[in-house]
């Protein structure tokens, strides 16, 4: 067994010290470099953040005694197209009707919307068919949707269609703002 001479021991110690120094500074460099990349990424993301523009829309909801409609104003995101705006207004109106417990079926969904002159045709899924019966409550719900929609885009009247077919009672008519 060989014992290291003080000279060899000193050389090994210096080599190990230099390697430790190199590894330490290399690690520190990587940490700093990573921080700079993170900062650049955060700054890039901050530039991409876009404020969502909103607009106030008038919604008409049945009053507490269900004898008429009351007007409230809600904020919705600005839409890029008329169809998108109609979808958002219908969705928000249905959401408000469910929140206020005037409408119990959350499955009512707008399938399609199209214009013909100043008439808006709204095609809903089959769940909308439950509102075809002429009752005070159903009339208020339909009038709520109609009044909210006729306040936008110059719409004069609304025709409700259920899964591509006309209704037999309440939904067989054209509805105007009242």
Task: Give a short summary of the structure.
By secondary structure, the protein is an alpha+beta fold. The protein has helices at 6-48, 82-99, 136-150; strands at residues 54-62, 69-77, 110-116, 119-124, 157-162, 165-166, 174-176.
Keywords for this entry:
two-stranded antiparallel sheet, single chain, 178 residues, 7 strands, alpha+beta, GMP Synthetase, Chain A, domain 3, 43% helix
Give the strand content. 15-25%
- How many β-strands, per DSSP? 7
- Category by helix and strand content: alpha+beta
Span between N and C termini?
107 Å
Detail the topology: elements first, then pairings.
Layout: H1 6-48, E1 54-62, E2 69-77, H2 82-99, E3 110-116, E4 119-124, H3 136-150, E5 157-162, E6 165-166, E7 174-176
Parallel strand pairs: 4-5
Antiparallel strand pairs: 1-2, 3-4, 5-6, 5-7
Helix pairs in contact: 2-3
Can you give a write-up of this model?
With 178 residues, the protein is α+β, with helices and mostly antiparallel strands. The chain contains 3 helices and 7 strands; from the N terminus they run αββαββαβββ. The strands form 2 sheets. Strands 3, 4, 5, 6 and 7 form a 5-stranded mixed sheet that branches. A two-stranded antiparallel ribbon has the order 1-2. A hairpin with a 6-residue loop joins strand 1 and strand 2. Helix 2 runs antiparallel to helix 3. The longest helix is centred in the first third of the chain and has 43 residues. The model has no long low-confidence stretch (mean pLDDT 87).
């Amino acid at each position: 067994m060989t014992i290291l001479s003080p000279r060899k021991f000193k050389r090994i110690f210096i080599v190990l010290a230099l390697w430790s120094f190199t590894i330490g500074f290399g690690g520190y460099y990587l940490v700093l470099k990573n921080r700079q990349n993170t900062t650049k990424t955060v700054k890039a993301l901050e530039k991409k953040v876009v404020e969502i523009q909103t607009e106030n829309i008038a919604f008409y909801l049945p009053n507490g005694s269900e004898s008429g409609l009351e007007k409230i104003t809600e904020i919705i995101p600005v839409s890029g197209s008329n169809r998108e705006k109609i979808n958002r207004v219908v969705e928000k109106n249905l959401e408000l009707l469910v929140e206020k417990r005037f409408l119990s079926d959350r499955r009512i969904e707008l399938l399609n919307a199209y214009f013909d002159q100043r008439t808006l045709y709204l095609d809903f899924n089959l769940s909308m068919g439950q509102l075809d019966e002429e009752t005070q409550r159903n009339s208020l719900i339909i009038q709520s949707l109609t009044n909210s929609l006729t306040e936008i885009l110059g719409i004069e009247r609304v025709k409700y269609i259920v899964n591509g077919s006309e209704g037999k009672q309440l939904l067989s008519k054209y509805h105007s703002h009242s």
